Structure formats: C-alpha cells, structure tokens
Amino acid sequence: MANRIAQHHDSLEFEVVVAVLWHIWKTRNNFVFRQQHLNPIRVIDLALASVRMAQLINSNKGGTRCHSLKSDDVWRPPDPGFLKVNIDGAFQVGGNEGTKVCICRDQNGKMKDGLIRSFVASSVLQAEFQALTITLHYLLEQNKAHDLMVIEYD
C-alpha cells in the first residue's frame, strides 16, 4: 500500500481522498469535543474547496513579510529557505459563522502545512481578521515563530 501511495501522491485523486479524510476527521472531532453537527454534504464541499484552492495556488507558480493580495496578483513561490503562508477567511452574509484556511508552501510550491477552521463571526471584516489571528496563533503553536516566512492574505 505504501508503494501505491508513493506512486500517486501527486495525483488529483489522491489530494481529494486526503482532503475528504481530513475533513471527516475534523468533523468527527468537532462533534465529539464541541458537540457541533455538520451536514455530510458540507464536509465534502469543504474538502473539494480546499483541493480547488490548492490547485489554484499551484497553477500560478514564479524575515517575515506580509501583504494583502490584489485580484490581479498571482501566486509566486517564496525565496529559498522561506515558507509562504496564504490565508483566506470566508463569511456568508446573514450567517454567524466564518471559515478560514491557510496553506504553507515551500519555494517549490510543495505544501508543508495547512489549517482549516470554523469560528463565530458576524461580518466579512471580522472573518478576515479572525483568519489572520487564528493562523498567527497556529504558527506560534507549531514553533514557527523564528522561521522565515511570507504571509499573504486578501
């Protein structure tokens, strides 16, 4: 099985399977530890969205710096030795929940880490701020305070 995984680890199908398994695991943990229920269709939607985001980032390849992306910006790899952290927050008007995603990639575009998390929010601005704040806390928890990185958000 390990050989089969090694042969297909770069395939879209493998990414989808990993994303679905990850989201099932997160949903199970949210149910067990937070008593949060999530529609199974929503779990699959989140998994496919995370795969799509990774595809978009990969399709646009060329101390800590941080800047906001403009709509005409394309993803470029960080300098050698740096990690690039892409962050996005989402909020649906009329709802009370935001979702954030961050993806950490090296100079070759290889994913090194990532995080998807839901949180209470009441506006787009609050969701974007929470996305940045949660990501920074996560990076500190992962002992990345002294790593060289570029942080991008929109």
UniProtKB/TrEMBL annotation:
Source organism superkingdom: Eukaryota
Q: Sorted alphabetically, which InterPro entries does this protein's record hold?
A: RNase_H-like_EbsB-rel
Per its record, how is this protein called by name?
A: RNase H type-1 domain-containing protein
